[in-house]
């Protein structure tokens, strides 16, 4: 068995972790269903049932996008085949000026240096993922506009 999803049917059959979050915006209420394991999976509905019903359609669209871009889709974390022996501990070297900046950031946020580093890494990764998703959406829109012309 490959460590990456090989077909749409396989992708649809796998149970990825889903998060259900209620929202209220400009008088409208509903729920958002998203997956921390599938970048880009986020659907909306008036009810939980309605939003969950959209998950497979979103997975189909994402599968097409990932294949088109040549990206791979990983198995859900619970299916991990590799022994993930991450201790949560690492040692890094950085320039003194960066060390000072991270320290000052941590002081400003009233957190430890370690917590400040973790927050900055997490924010940077999320920003990178959002930028990639934004570029993909703009590419799709551009292709759709070309198809319309």
What is the architecture of the largest domain at the second tier of CATH?
2-Layer Sandwich
Structural class comes to alpha+beta
Mean pLDDT: 89
- The arrangement of helices and strands along the chain is HEEEHHHH
Percent strand: 5-15%
> Helical proportion?
40-55%
CATH topology of the largest domain: Double Stranded RNA Binding Domain
Uncertain stretches of 5 or more adjacent residues: none
Number of domains: 2
Tell me the name of the CATH class of the largest domain: Alpha Beta
Q: How many strands in all?
A: 3
Radius of gyration: 20 Å
Shape: globular
State the helix count: 5
Q: Tell me the major beta sheet.
A: 3 strands, antiparallel
Distance between the termini: 43 Å
Sequence of strands across the biggest β-sheet:
1-2-3
């Amino acid at each position: 068995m490959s460590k990456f999803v090989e077909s749409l049917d396989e992708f649809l059959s796998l149970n990825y972790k889903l998060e259900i979050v209620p929202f209220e915006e400009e008088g409208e209420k509903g729920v958002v269903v998203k997956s921390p394991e599938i970048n880009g999976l986020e659907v909306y509905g008036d009810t939980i049932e309605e939003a969950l019903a959209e998950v497979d359609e979103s997975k189909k669209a994402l599968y097409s996008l990932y294949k088109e871009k040549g990206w791979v889709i990983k198995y859900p974390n619970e299916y991990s085949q590799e022994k993930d022996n991450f201790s949560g501990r690492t040692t890094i070297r950085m320039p003194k000026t960066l060390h000072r900046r991270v320290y000052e950031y941590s002081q400003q946020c009233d957190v430890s240096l370690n917590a400040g580093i973790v927050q900055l890494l997490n924010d940077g990764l999320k920003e990178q993922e959002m930028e990639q998703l934004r570029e993909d959406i703009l590419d799709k829109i551009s292709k759709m506009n070309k198809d319309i012309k």
